[in-house]
Amino acid sequence: MLASWLSVGKKLSGRVTCWITKAEVTETVLSLWGIFVYGGMDGDERATSERILLEPYKYLLQLPGKQVRTKLSQAFNHWLNVPEDKLQVIIEVTEMLHNASLLIDDIEDSSKLRRGFPVAHSIYGVPSVINSANYVYFLGLEKVLTLEHPEAVHVFTRQLLELHRGQGLDIHWRDTYTCPSEDEYRGMVLQKTGGLFGLAVGLMQLFSHWKPDLKPLLDTLGLFFQIRDDYANLNSTEYSENKSFCEDLTEGKFSFPTIHAIWSRPESTQVQNILRQRTENEDIKRYCVDYLEKVGSFAYTRQTLLDLEAEAYRLIAELGGNPELEALLQHLSRMYKEPGGGASAGQSKEPGGGAAGGQSKH
């Protein structure tokens, strides 16, 4: 029996090499691979195994999200005109990787809430959640293979590597109490946030006849999304309700507003000391938010967002215009433009109080 399984594995190994280099995915190979993975399991046993593996991931899926990345892909398809069947696979892959990365992020950040509900690892435990997230990464790769394009796996691998490089830098700065410069922060964001943006659009471009360079626009959008997220974490009522009050301060994260405060007031170490504490004390966090307002860090962040938004509109116009993408930008910009959008969360009377609502983290 062992010899026969080794024989199957050897044949599959050779086939997988062909798979990746030539994208020759067939139903037969996928079926054989399923047999190799699940062994002699019958259908019910396989379904039970799959349910156990995916339960933490499916727990996250049931929580209400805003599907921003799906909307972004659909907006870019205004230009790219990708066949519907390919577009749906790409959207599914992007959402799978995005949600799996959230499971890992919540562990790495010691988060308590995700979209207003307990994080998955507080229910299923860290080991099961890590395994589930990693499993979904590879399910995403399996789905990429069904696109049957020789460059698809290369795009997938390149962008996931970028995502992890950026995340690694972010964690390193946090855990070594090293405040990056604004330029270093922007470089990290282009890797971390831009990774999944680049994946979706990069895969779409493989199936499009429209070939302009979209990197400047993708970079601008990546910075806009992450800096907006940093701003919302410290300034949005909805964000505080969906996560927890000023969670980035408890995490000890060097976000865009705190980086500005630290470098613009080098004589003061207040922000660094608060971040180092990883405090959950809301009075201390409110004080820090008030300090960020006082030294102009929120005003600087809002202006940066306005500049990035204007640059995005300029690049969109150069590419011929895109009503769907422009509408998405307008919707996301309301959080820091509407009355109260710049009010300090620390000025609210209730824990988690703040200004206009923003999107949930990532």
Would you spell out the secondary-structure blueprint of this structure?
Elements: H1 2-22, H2 27-38, H3 43-61, H4 68-80, H5 84-108, E1 113-114, E2 117-118, H6 121-124, H7 126-145, H8 152-175, H9 182-205, H10 215-235, H11 237-242, H12 247-251, H13 256-264, H14 270-277, H15 282-294, H16 297-318, H17 323-337
Antiparallel strand pairs: 1-2
Helix pairs in contact: 1-2, 3-7, 4-5, 4-9, 4-17, 5-7, 5-9, 8-9, 9-10, 10-16, 13-16, 16-17
Features:
362 residues; mainly alpha; 2 strands; disordered N terminus; Polyprenyl_synt; magnesium; (2E,6E)-farnesyl diphosphate synthase activity
Describe this structure in words.
One of its GO terms (molecular function) is dimethylallyltranstransferase activity. Residues 351-362 have a biased composition (Gly residues). Belongs to the FPP/GGPP synthase family. Homohexamer; trimer of homodimers. InterPro entries: Polyprenyl_synt, Polyprenyl_synt_CS. This protein is mainly α and 362 residues long. It has a single domain (67-347), classed as Orthogonal Bundle (Farnesyl Diphosphate Synthase). Helix content is 72%, strand content 1%. It contains 17 helices and 2 strands. It has helices at residues 2-22, 27-38, 43-61, 68-80, 84-108, 121-124, 126-145, 152-175, 182-205, 215-235, 237-242, 247-251, 256-264, 270-277, 282-294, 297-318, 323-337; strands at residues 113-114, 117-118. The chain has a two-stranded antiparallel ribbon. A hairpin with a 2-residue loop joins strand 1 and strand 2 (117-118).
